[in-house]
Design brief:
The protein has about 300 residues and is mainly alpha-helical. It has 13 helices and no strands. It has one domain. It is globular and about 50 Å long.
């Protein structure tokens, strides 16, 4: 019998072909980004938000709408990672993001499912590409890379004056997604990710519970412009108070946490409240946690 090293499947040429067949780092990042969007949808109860269980406060979209959208925008996350590796400027990233939005709208029949997530996750993919290519210190968080490389340009960039976020920002003085990104996503690093870690102690082994805890923590603390658009200041305060009460009672550490969270969810639906900003931030938390655990390697 021939030794193993002499068999054809272990020749150097075959090894090179196998390596070439592996997905690139940007492609693996894009797969993690799509999975993060899908896991956000596969989380319930999330107050007022679309999930695999129900449509929340929405009549124009469901879980399948979001799944189609996530699949449609996946290639653009890889493009953004490649652009980050080239140290592309913000206008180049913005053009890719706009193409991703067009793909999203084509997949959903004109429904805005993931515009905020394209912006946030797209920047994080670009940051991962830049860090991997040596344009930022490896010990910097992805959020810190975004702030360092593109923070000023994010704030100075063109605005959509009729968008819900811009309208709410002008009316109520909320910073919105633009300021969140320019500052390195503090809501992700200071609220969402710590909530995921805390929930791993409260509900060990239950990944959905971890995401529910993070979602409630984000709703409790973030001035979500989607809530301001739908419910004004009263709606925002109601949402924050409800989420804080859930967390103060023990969050997902309560024996009946799912029933308690579902009751709050139905209260949001009655008021037509939907914290879409928190949903986007939750997907970013899931993405960063996966990347930090080496799932894109």
């Amino acid at each position: 019998m021939k030794p193993l090293h002499a068999t054809r499947s272990f020749t150097p040429a075959a090894g090179k072909l196998a390596a070439a067949a592996l997905p690139s780092f940007p492609a693996r990042l894009a797969a993690v980004a799509e999975r993060s969007l899908r896991l956000e949808i596969e989380t319930w109860p999330k107050p007022g938000l679309v999930s695999h269980v129900d449509n929340g406060s929405h009549t124009d979209m469901d879980a399948d709408t979001f799944r189609r959208s996530a699949a449609a925008v996946r290639p653009y996350f890889a493009e953004l990672a490649e652009a980050g590796a080239r140290r592309a400027a913000m206008p180049a990233l913005r053009k890719i993001g706009l193409r991703a939005e067009r793909a999203m709208l084509a997949a959903t029949g004109g429904v805005n499912t993931h515009r905020g997530a394209i912006f946030g996750l797209g920047l994080l993919c670009a940051a991962a590409g830049a860090r991997d290519a040596g344009h930022a210190d490896t010990d910097l968080s992805l959020g810190a890379v975004v702030a360092r490389l593109w923070g000023g340009d994010i704030l100075a960039g063109p605005r959509l004056p009729d968008s819900h976020g811009e309208c709410a920002g002008r009316r109520y003085g909320a910073g919105g997604a633009r300021h969140e990104a320019a500052e390195g996503f503090p809501s992700v690093y200071e609220i969402g990710l710590p909530a995921l870690r805390e929930a791993s102690r409260l509900a060990p082994g239950d990944e959905e519970a971890l995401r529910v805890q993070a979602c409630f923590a984000l709703i409790a603390a973030v001035e979500d412009t989607n809530l301001l658009h739908r419910g004004g200041l009263d709606g925002l305060r109601f949402a924050q108070h409800s989420a804080r009460a859930f967390l103060e009672r023990g969050g997902v550490g309560q024996a009946d946490w799912r029933a308690a969270a579902a009751a709050i969810h139905h209260g949001f639906v009655e008021r037509r409240l939907s914290p879409g900003g928190a949903a986007d931030l939750l997907a970013m938390c899931v993405f960063i946690r996966a990347v930090e655990h080496g799932e894109a390697r």
